[in-house]
Design a protein that fits this description.
By secondary structure, the chain is of the alpha/beta class. It folds into 2 domains: about 10-100 and about 160-265, Rossmann fold (3-Layer(aba) Sandwich); about 105-145, no CATH class. About 45% of the residues lie in helices and about 15% in strands. A 5-stranded parallel β-sheet has the order 4-5-8-3-9. Strands 1-2 form a two-stranded antiparallel ribbon. A two-stranded antiparallel ribbon has the order 6-7. Strand 1 (about 55) and strand 2 (about 60-65) form a beta hairpin. Helix 1 crosses helix 2 (about 35-50), helix 2 runs parallel beside helix 3 and helix 3 (about 80-130) packs antiparallel against helix 4 (about 135-145). It comes from Escherichia coli.
Length: about 280
Amino acid sequence: MSVLALEKPYPTYALPPLVRNAIIETQKNTQAPLALVATSALTAMSVSSQNQADVCRPGNLCGPVNLYSLILADSGERKTTVDKVFMKAFYLRDEALAEEYAKLVENYSTEKEIWEQKQKALESKLHKEIRAGKDCKATESELKRHLNKCPVPPQIHRTIFNETTIEGMLKYYSDSNRSFALVSSEGGIIFDGRAMSKLGILNSLWDGGSLFIDRKSSPGIILKDPRLTVSVMIQPDVYQKGFCTRKKELVKTSGHHARFLMCQPTSTQGTRIITGDNYS
């Protein structure tokens, strides 16, 4: 695959004014490449909307609005800094959900312990009635009702993942948590790891259709309308000579590249000028 550096100005004029202004301001503050900043903004838009809407195209074709983005750039282009600007709300939400989950787990443990003690008491009562030859229908009914009220463990919700496998990310899937984002400024970890070892699953997640995931150590799961955003920055040589070389035929035949918005912006390193009154 040959990739040409994007020399023409990024078409920010095609974006809504609110988004365009946010991109321009962030680029001014961080002095990161404009295409990188715009990609980060589009990533945030994708994550925030992918679980809320689908898009209809000509020919009665409907599909998800999630985006896969790939930035070919060397380290030091400030993707992490830019992502913190646009993705901050999602990280804060994940932190809040993690804290809430910890409290729910504590409550669940208490409720489960109480439930188990009640179960033991009812089973003991039933056992005594049976041995004594007494009518135990009332106790049986009470035990059945109790067993049907077993506390349900809480489900942890999380959206943003930086370094993970597909299986590790999808274990968080549930009917109320089907929207995910794989965001990384160290794409070598992602593309060299297991996250990209199953391109078929990634391609299916881009399409947004239902998907069955088989598991070795536990029953498989059916993902109904999952949504995944991918935004990865990787060094050009690492991507082309590493990942693309190792999976050359699979990348060509699977439609992997066709699913990604790709850019290779000109580096701004060495041209960043400190502005403003505070130079410290």
